[in-house]
Amino acid sequence: MKDWKDWYSENRSEEHKVVNDIEEKIHDDLVLVRLWIAQDGKAPKGAIKYQSKVWKNKNSKGTNPAKNLVIITASGQPPLILTNKNSPLVNKSGKVAKGKKNDGNAPTSRYLSKPYQWRCRDCGDQFDSNVAEIHCTRQPRQLSKVSDDSKKWFDKFLNGIEWEFVPHHTISKGQIGVIDNPIADGIAEEAGRELEKILNRVEMKPPEVFELYNYKTRYLRVSDLKDYRKFKQVISKIAEWRKLKIRPIRSAPVGVIEIGHAFDEFLSSNFKNISSDDWSSGERIWFECKELGVTVSGTPDLSFQGIPVETKTLKLFPFEVEDENQQSIFRYKWKTNYCKQVALYLQGCEMDWMLLLLISRESGKFTLVPVNDEAMEKMRADWNEWANNKEHSTKLEEYRKLISEEEVAS
Ligand SMILES: [Zn+2]
């Protein structure tokens, strides 16, 4: 389920809801199979087609899916039709894509074999182990090899790539936190021109591995403070997760989800090799969230002349595609993610603004935007609301206690 939601966020809309008429309870690990409808275009080989009614009743669109369907839907976007892998809709046709080949969109996952790969969060050493072995006093991050399909994608991408800096004004116009300041704009422009030269000069290597995302975190993360759904999920379980031994993740994503992760690795590993007086790696920032009584940390990817630079990748910029939905998706990402991330980092350093580096994963176009912490006010109001929720406040207390015990112990 989670993979499909990620797929929908990435390809159609981050603002969506899931409705269903299946017997099972919907949860993130539920395995669902995609059904192709006419709106999806040509179905790939082996796909299961669905030609019946999607909604029970046209008037109640969005609330009453037809029997055995799970539907992800958003306004202005085609719905994504899914069904349980044991559903009669699947058995009838007898054709379930086995999760090997797909059209590059359909998310399936692949199993990882032992020994698993890890990387130390402190010293960056990579090592193999069947279990999560502590390195430099910290839990390591688990890695996955990049799949052959994604390797091919990178080879093709790197073969024709020309990195191009685009000034930010048309892209960033009207977005939260964008500052209108000639000095900041001058710095952004200089940073962009310089980065364009660097990127086109260095020989970029495709990534061999990428970091797996483990939702069972031991610490609240920056991303948990940006999104209520995430926060709610994490805070309700985090104390429990902290008591468990860290189990290795046993499967890795494929398709667009994998490329997204691998692209982050691609940028960070190649940025490490950049030698420039102005550009360097980012430094870890700590931020105390008084409203929730917690401290979170994060590391902006880069810095330019000492100014932190946070990198976000997107498939293409809205101006590169002839699809009006892309502009609203971009606006949504900005509002719920980009401006919040910047605002959080700015609380942890002595700066009024920093740079947001947006990179297209397909065209190689990128831009740099000076952004301030305008998003903070709304976030603080949200946090106060979360902290006042009785269920969360109990859990927060429990988490804070575990953290303070850990600090005493070390
Ligand atoms: Zn280490």
Descriptive overview:
- With 410 residues, this protein is an alpha+beta fold.
- The protein folds into three domains: 2-92, no CATH class; 110-145, no CATH class; 161-399, Lambda Exonuclease, Chain A (Alpha-Beta Complex).
- It is built from eleven helices and 19 strands.
- The chain has a six-stranded mixed sheet. Strands 1-4-5-2-3 form a five-stranded mixed sheet.
- The chain is globular, with a radius of gyration of 22 Å.
- The two termini are 39 Å apart.
- Bound molecules: zinc ion.
Beta-strand portion reads 15-25%
Distance between the termini: 39 Å
Question: Shape, please?
Answer: globular
Q: Mean pLDDT, nearest integer?
A: 88
- Number of helical segments? 11
User: In the residues, how many domains can be counted?
Assistant: 3
Which hetero compounds are present in the coordinates? zinc ion
Under CATH at level 1, the class of the largest domain stands as Alpha Beta
Q: Report the radius of gyration as a whole number of Å.
A: 22 Å
Q: Could you name the CATH topology of the largest domain?
A: Lambda Exonuclease, Chain A
Secondary structure layout plus pairing:
Elements: H1 2-11, E1 17-20, E2 32-36, E3 48-49, E4 70-73, E5 80-84, H2 88-93, E6 109-111, E7 116-119, E8 126-129, E9 141-145, H3 148-160, E10 164-165, H4 169-172, H5 182-201, E11 209-211, H6 222-226, H7 228-243, E12 251-253, H8 255-272, E13 279-281, E14 285-289, E15 294-298, E16 302-304, E17 307-314, H9 324-347, E18 353-360, E19 365-372, H10 376-388, H11 390-409
Parallel strand pairs: 2-3, 10-19, 17-18
Antiparallel strand pairs: 1-4, 2-5, 4-5, 6-12, 7-8, 7-9, 9-11, 13-16, 14-15, 16-17, 18-19
Zinc ion (ZN) binds at residues 120, 122-123, 125, 135-136.
